[in-house]
Write the structure tokens for this entry.
Amino acid sequence: MKNILVTGGAGFIGANFVHYWMEHYPNDKVVVLDALTYAGNIANLDSVKDKDNFTFSHGDIGDQALVESLLNDHNIDTLVHFAAESHVDRSITGPDAFIETNIIGTYSLLKAAKKIWIDNPKRTGEEVKNHRFHHVSTDEVYGTLSATDPAFTENTAYAPNSPYSASKAASDHLVRAYHHTYGLQVTTSNCSNNYGPYHFPEKLIPLVITNILHDKALPIYGDGQQIRDWLYVEDHAYGIDLVLNKGRVGENYNIGGNNEWANIDIVKAISLLVEKEFQKDLSLARRFPKALNAIAQTTKSLITYVQDRPGHDRRYAIDATKTKNELGYFPKESFQTGIAKSVQWYLNNEAWWQSVMDGSYQDWIKEQYSQFHN
Ligand code: NAD
Ligand code: TYD
């Protein structure tokens, strides 16, 4: 049995991980620490919030005293670190928060973990010999690939190109250093682009779904030929589960979908899926009266090529051979089933995405991207 502290557990992947973990390990104790930034939403944890083995703490990973008390008070033996600023576009217009949370925040967490687990391992009279600090990172730290380059392995040299990926790379290095220098029992996973329920609608896939439902333009950066390797979010949670239970301390593990798509193709595929749903279920036209193009089966006409993202990485692709061979990892969801589930989820959860797109999200969209997102 584990006592797990999940940072960023009210965000997209963190919340899906908490749901996964509480379903697969119902006797474990789960504590979520989340600052509830624009990307964090307590409603993402509605289905678990009343369970006896679940605790939510509203706070910042940079608050070392708070983290130390959570580690102590809940006898935490496993920390899974998702909390981050995660949107590349925001890192281009406002990198400060990325440096603060992703680098300084991770450093603060490492200091707290070292203090409680290594420097002062007496807790409730028992030595904490086995602990784990699992750091959730991204394939973006490896930089960009050409169309013919081999996919990223764990040995690919780091070459981050955006303030987001540079801040994640810095945090990966700090985690590694805390293992080598102080013996903190760490693992790191580098995952490709996730999609699925609770995905914040500033990211490509939920943005396209929700814009179709609002009959808004689907902004394609540059020529739309950039490639991403998409993974259903529950398969990311499953990969982290394997790393926690079978992974070797001090190692990095790549997690990917083996599922490369050019942006323009994924946008066209989603458009078709939404159109089919409108054909199958006539009540959708009533529920989403603004979705005139979806109703008329002409969503492709919403596609709008816009100015490219500065420094836009051309291609990401994960080689997960090590994770497959050592841990038996393989994604369980096919892209066909995963994307269909995701479209369904957004059709069924309008209240969720309408609420997260209120307030500061609208201000940000207007301020930074009025030319893209009409
Ligand atoms: P997200 O932006 O949806 O959620 C981040 C969560 O962290 C939010 O709940 C937010 O409130 C919380 N948070 C932010 N700053 C905090 C702070 N200072 N203290 C405490 N909580 C704070 O992000 P996500 O897409 O769920 O990504 C989670 C992690 O996975 C990140 O570390 C990201 O780098 C990594 N990752 C994401 C993807 C992806 O496709 N989204 C892919 C690979 C890796
Ligand atoms: P995103 O979901 O922001 O993830 P990341 O930048 O971390 O890969 O973007 C995925 C891809 O889609 C990326 O190549 C940028 C592109 N994109 C668009 O073309 N239009 C958009 O409106 C957005 C948000 C992204």
Q: What stands out?
A: The pocket of thymidine-5'-diphosphate (ligand 2) is lined by residues 88, 193, 203-204, 207, 219-221, 226, 228, 263, 309 (CB under 6 Å). The CA atoms of residues 21 and 317 lie 27 Å apart. Residues 96-119 form the longest helix (24 residues).
